[in-house]
Amino acid sequence: MKKGKEKESLWKALKNNLYLLKLSFESCPGRVIGEFFYIGYRYGSSLFYTVIFMGFIFKFIEEGTDFHTVLFFLVIAGLFWGIGGLYRAVYERTVSPIGNQKLYENLHIRMYEKATDVELECYENPKFYSQYTKAASQIKGRAFLVVHVLPELVCSVICAVCAGVRIALIDRYAIVLGIIPLVTTYFFGKKSNQVKYDLYQENIPKEREKDYIKRTIYQKDYAKEIRLTHVFSMMMEHFKKASDAVIQNTKKCGLKAGLLNFLQGSTNELLTGMGVIVYSTIRLLYFKNIKISDYMVLVSAIGYLAWCLTRTARLLSKVQDTSLYIQNVKDFLQYQPKISESQEGRMPEAGNTNLTLKDVSYTYVGQTQPVLKHINLEIGKGEKIALVGHNGAGKSTLVKLLMRLYDVTEGEIQLNGANIKKYNVQAYRRLFGTVFQDYKVLSLTVAENVLMDTVTEEDRPRIEQALRDSGVYDKVMTLPKGMDTMLTREFDEEGAELSGGEFQKIAIARVFARGSDVAVLDEPSSALDPIAEYNMYESMLRACRDKSVIFISHRLSSAVLADRIYMLENGEVVESGSHSQLMKQNGKYAQMFRFQAENYR
Ligand code: ADP
Ligand code: MG
After folding, report:
1. Which pTM does this prediction carry?
2. Residue 430 lies in a domain
3. Which tens digit of pLDDT belongs to each residue from 36-67?
4. Total domain count for the chain?
5. H/E element holding 566?
6. Of all protein residues, whose CA lies closest to atom 27 belonging to ligand 1?
7. Whose CA is nearest to atom 19 of ligand 1?
8. Which tens digit of pLDDT belongs to each residue from 129-154?
9. In-domain check, residue 378
10. CA distance linking residue 381 with residue 427, whole number of Å
11. What lines the ligand 1 site, CB under 6 Å?
């Protein structure tokens, strides 16, 4: 039973390794084929010189072969050596390093494409996220291993068979001596792999904690807090604790792994290394039933067979070891996104977007309570909608559902009467131009930041207009390279560092440049004062005359501008209507409006 299970896991390990080899082959076939030849040559020459060459030389001496035959044999051997050596040198210095770059580049692109395709929910699922980070950090190293290990495995098996046949031709019982190390290495290797993997698993949470601390310390975002509070010393405590835990784990597992290595090495030395010499010498000197040339071949070929088999076993345990990591990569790459950009579907009709939420509820993954409950609302073509409510009311979640970054848990969202799930995801998302509360400015040029795509000459007027509409054009023109100036100094010393408000305007320009049917502004204005916010929304609405606009704010002074206001509280729409209707209604909105107006005065 147990044996069956082991076999199955070895089989599964081989399949996983082959999966990554196939990916690597698709990414860079030359690298994989080149490695096969490279290892083939190394093994071929070692087989030739240890098992065949020496035997022939002694045979020539014993039989007194004529000089021309010996010379011919030596020239062939020399040629084989010379050509192989040349290939080896070229391969190691050019084919292999260039192939590696191509291999990693293509593999990483595959990972990134997948990472951008999976739904946003995956990033909030700690299990998935940790699988992704593991896969991303492992794929390069593992691909290199697989590209090397599998060809070597094939070669070592072939060479072992050849050596075995050669030994059997002299003395088939002697093969047993060469097989012993296979058994011991497989047995000990498996155990020490488990020890290593356990150590890796135990260290992951600690390493992640350390990484987090490292990141916070060198990232600009946290620099102010770190200087103004005692948080640094507290974090250092955590860092030290995590490092100590890693040291403790390593101590614990290191002793176990060392002992296993020692046992494996000494068993092989004793049984095979000494065994073969004692056995062959007894045959040569005591029974006198073996020729000198066969004695030479037997001693070197058994050693070689043992080496090949040990190597095979090591490689197999590497295959198993690697398989555990490849599983992460495989699970990640084979994950079928629930909302995939590559999904086919209807194309939405441009310039005509009527959105309806019908009884929509949503619960975040891993949560028990819904954050949105039975929401019904409509956003007509060209309508200006304000979503208002306190922090945590569910406004951001609502717009993320609208853009299909998540799928609703209950109810449905319709575009022109049809469920949004029926539309082509990419085309559907293109209907929206969005600035989020936590918008990010990238280390790219101003123009690229606005367009969020490759900028061509034709795009320039559109970008310029977008910058004008968001009110930051004049500022951009004062920068050394205008809209081609890099933002942030991450990669360019002459990069521009703008103020929070200016970065915000650049983010808002994205909505204008995108020219989509629906503009969504999720409190990008939170850093502005109420008057600046009001002005910004006013110019925004003017520039978006013919578009639908959804703007979110927990400040009601701007909501006045909207055609219709939806007020959210604890995930429910509690009031809706125009500003004057809601004031007349004299409910929660009116109360909150008066309260805020009082405060700002
Ligand atoms: P608002 O934008 O109105 O401030 P949000 O939509 O951001 O509110 O959040 C609504 C509720 O959902 C809050 O209670 C918040 O804690 C919770 N929430 C937001 N994002 C997540 C998430 N990714 N996972 C779990 N809960 C979340
Ligand atoms: Mg929000």
Report:
1. 0.74
2. no
3. 999 999 999 999 988 888 888 888 888 888 88
4. 2
5. strand 564-569
6. 364
7. 397
8. 888 888 888 888 899 999 999 999 99
9. no
10. 17
11. 124, 364, 367, 371, 389, 391-397
